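We emphasize that the prediction below concerns an isolated chain of 217 residues; any contacts that depend on oligomerization or on bound cofactors are therefore not represented. The input was used exactly as deposited, without trimming of termini.
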Amino acid sequence: MTNSPKPTHKPPQEILPSLWGFAPNRDTLGGVAYLIAHPEGGVLVDLPAWNTVNQEFLEKFQVRYCFLTHRGAIAAPAPWRSFLNCALCIQEQEAYLLPGLEPRSFHTEITLAADLYGFWTPGHSPGSACLYWQAQGGILFSGRHLLPNAEGNPTPLHTRKTFHWPRQLHHTQALKQRFSPETLSYICPGASLGLLRGAKFIDRAYDRLNWELRIKN
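Result of the prediction step, given as a token string:
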């Protein structure tokens, strides 16, 4: 009788300069986490799977914050917080999901660095939020507020778990006023990367988002 091989875990991949993407996390239904290697301290966007591959990778960085885009991205928060000794940042309506972990909650916006801030985009969940990094022409980490559709374009999706669809549409439209083609080059969605056909992000993000919004209107 032979021993069955131990499951292997894929290491994070550098997808843009100073930005890594993790393998989908089964504990968050295929959610994708990211690491920003920011000069003021690393920033995790959502939580990757709790395994030795990810632990050994993150040990190389001084992770200062973990920004949680929505309640569905929470998995093993206590072990990760203890391991990384970082602050967990989450919109105030979902902070109750982190009892005893002293999260850094916010209402409308939160600044993590001069070029990095999060903002509330309710709809997918009550405390859904996006993180924006001004680097490289602007990168938006959209969680499940925006996901790629079959054409690989960023779009809000109405599912059975959607908290408030009109609010989600409203906050998607508001991205048009917040950003421009010059300030939004990439979107890193929090799931459904398989629809990007091998790509690890959505490029030409503002123009492709605008196209999707015109179709919905």
